[in-house]
Amino acid sequence: MKRSFFGVLLLTILWSTTAHAARIFGDIKLDGKPLPEGVLVTLQRAAKPDANGKPVAGPPDSTKTDKVGSYKFTVKEEGKCTLTVLYEKQPIAIEVFSYKEPTRYDLILEKKEGKFTLRRK
């Protein structure tokens, strides 16, 4: 009896922590081709005020593009985030939003006047 109770309790806890997580995912292209495998992509949640009212940002999540230029993140909270691609030693950022539902951000990396920019497809 105790085992089944603890099993149900454990499943409830695991379900509740994953039920609130959403995903941000997509592809990144450069000149119509997928970004190479292994390009660093980070996601930083917007800073929230602490008990003293000072904005505090949590640690960024990071991943690398796969062989088709795709990336994915699991986000625990809804809200504004900054997605940054580190390409040719240049950080290129764009604002994205996490929602309860998975959100796809297919991005295009462009070079204008010697600088890279990132925009949504």
Strand and helix layout:
Elements: H1 2-19, E1 22-30, E2 33-34, E3 40-45, E4 48-49, E5 55-56, E6 61-64, E7 70-75, E8 79-87, E9 90-98, E10 103-104, E11 107-112, E12 115-120
Parallel strand pairs: 1-10, 1-11
Antiparallel strand pairs: 1-2, 1-7, 3-6, 3-8, 4-5, 8-9, 11-12
Q: In words, what does this structure look like?
A:
Strands 1, 2, 7, 10, 11 and 12 form a 6-stranded mixed beta sheet that branches. Strands 6-3-8-9 form a 4-stranded antiparallel beta sheet, with no helix packed on it. The chain has a two-stranded antiparallel ribbon with strand order 4-5. Residues 13-18 have low confidence and may be disordered. It contains 1 helix and 12 strands, in the order H-E-E-E-E-E-E-E-E-E-E-E-E. It has one helix at residues 2-19, and strands at residues 22-30, 33-34, 40-45, 48-49, 55-56, 61-64, 70-75, 79-87, 90-98, 103-104, 107-112, 115-120. The protein is mainly β and 121 residues long.
* Tally of individual helices: 1
For this entry, what is the oligomeric state of its chains? single chain
- Using the CA coordinates, give the radius of gyration: 18 Å
**The CATH topology is what?**
Immunoglobulin-like
CATH superfamily: Immunoglobulins
| CATH architecture tag | Sandwich
Low-confidence stretches: 13-18
Number of strands: 12
In CATH's first tier, which class applies? Mainly Beta
Work out the count of structural domains: 1
Mean pLDDT: 86
Percent range for β-strand residues = over 45%
Q: Summarize the main sheet.
A: 6 strands, mixed
Q: What structural class do you assign from the helix and strand content?
A: mainly beta
Q: How far apart are the termini?
A: 54 Å
Q: Helicity range of the residues?
A: 10-25%
Q: Which word captures the global form?
A: globular
Order of helices and strands: HEEEEEEEEEEEE
